[in-house]
Amino acid sequence: MSRMSGTSATGYLRYGAGRMGGAAVSLLAVLVTGFFLFRLIPGDPVKTMTGGRPVSAEQLAAYRKEFGLDLPLWEQFTHYCGSALSGDLGTSYQFRAPVVDKISEALPNTLLLTGTAFVLYTALGFFLGTRSAWRHGRLGDRLNTGLALTLYSVPSFWLGLVLIIVFSVGVGPIPGLFPTGGMESGGKEGFAYAVDVAHHLVLPVITLVAVEYGQTLLVTRSALLDEMGSDYLTTARAKGLRDDLVRRRHAVPNALLPTVTLVFVNLGRTVAGVILVETVFSWPGLGGLFYQALSVPDLPLVQGLFLVFASAVIITNTLADILYPLLDPRVVR
Questions:
Q1: How far, in Å, CA of 128 to CA of 120, rounded?
Q2: What's this model's pTM, rounded to 2 decimal places?
Q3: pLDDT per residue as tens digits for the range 220-231
Q4: Distance (Å, whole) CA 205 – CA 161
Q5: Which residues contact 41 (CB under 8 A, 6 or more apart)?
Q6: What number of other Cβ atoms are within 10 A of residue 18's Cβ?
């Protein structure tokens, strides 16, 4: 908190309250948007649930009444908002189970995938970003930034499919080393189960890391390059400090603000953006569940998942905003 010595506690509290108020408004907007947006999807969820079987008009009407689809749109909306604000996201059409339960089942699998990828691509991007900045203009810097920009522009689903073809199916002398999808092979327990899950985790994690690390690298590199021309670094070198010590003790800490911001933003964005990767690799997480729900469309489940994904982004952005003054007190002045 010494970094905040020039900022009053009252100013910081006012700043934090403003950010949390903005987050609450954003969540409310997501709630409203999610309800109306997914009702534009073509298709009748009730007819989809019958699986194409011959169903009488009376049975269809009974299904619509059961799920509240016979009510006027405004009444459906008020009921949805009231239930959502109390923690009830409704009942899934296709699973006939509470949406909260389905999300709770899939959430740990998504957190395992995104958490592993997040730690790896953040560490890799930060490490390569600092090295590129300190050696900017050299061959290593040009190779690092070029590869990062290339991979960052690659669609994650396309890269995932390429990795499946090469390392799961096998191409030429390269044998199929990894499963084509899923989270486990089944029939294993204990340590063997953990190894099996890790084996299935390799390709989807590589896909996410390859696509996402470049942004952290580029932001870290840019922030550090801005700091490298500062007078205090010249003074530190004049005192005889080694370059790596100057970088670690002086340049890197002062260049952290943009990188820390990006870390929080990426954390929420990775959870929300995992849909394509989970679908490609048949990973049983929130992304795969969202894809299933869209195909019906299972409106309560789609709305609930949309709320979770948007909330992850909003909450992590708000945490980054609240953390700003701890790193740079000038933010609240």
A1: 12
A2: 0.81
A3: 888 888 777 666
A4: 13
A5: 294, 297
A6: 12
